[in-house]
Amino acid sequence: MVVAVVQFDLFMPHNRSLKEKRHLLTKLKERVYSQLKVTVNEVDHGDLWQRSKLGFALVGNEEKPLESLTTRTMNFIVSLGVGDVGAEDRDYIHYE
Questions:
Q1: pLDDT for residue 83
Q2: Which residue in 25, 33, 20 sits closest to 8, CA to CA?
Q3: Which residue(s) pair with 58 in the sheet?
Q4: Which end of the chain is more exposed for a tag (fewer CB within 10 A), N or C?
């Protein structure tokens, strides 16, 4: 079994409030799930209105398909144009 864990920063310079940030993140999460069946969640910076750290995890039998889905997910998030994707951290954990 392989677990892929991904965290990335999202900078949304046009937000003016936490309410607007939450609205944009809700739409982002819904679109990612409807398109790719991947659940994305905010994992840090919940109190900042222009910045967020988002994350998701995937489980599979092999690393290569997980790498592909991780890349597709990140590309889809960038294509939504919600904000600028910053630092990204991917880890692949292998279990026997």
A1: 93
A2: 25
A3: 4
A4: C
Distance CA 37, CA 30 (A): 9
Pairing of strands 84-94, 2-11: antiparallel
Judge whether 92 and 63 are in contact, CB under 8 Å.
yes
Query: How many CB atoms within 10 Å of residue 77?
Result: 23
Specify the number of domains making up the chain.
1
Which CATH number does the domain housing residue 21 bear? 3.30.70.1120
pTM: 0.90
Residue 48 is classified by DSSP as -
Q: Where are the alpha helices (DSSP H) in the chain?
A: 18-36, 63-79
Q: CA Rg, the chain, in Å? A: 14
With CA atoms as reference, report the closest residue to 84 among 5, 34, 15: 15
22-75 pLDDT per residue, tens: 999 999 999 999 999 999 999 999 899 999 999 999 999 999 999 999 999 999
